[in-house]
Amino acid sequence: MGDLFTIQHLLLILLIVVLVFGTKKLRNIGSDLGGAVKSFKEGMAANDTSVHTEKDEKKPLEEMSANTVNQDVTNKNKDHS
Question: What is the pLDDT of residue 40?
Answer without folding.
Answer: 92
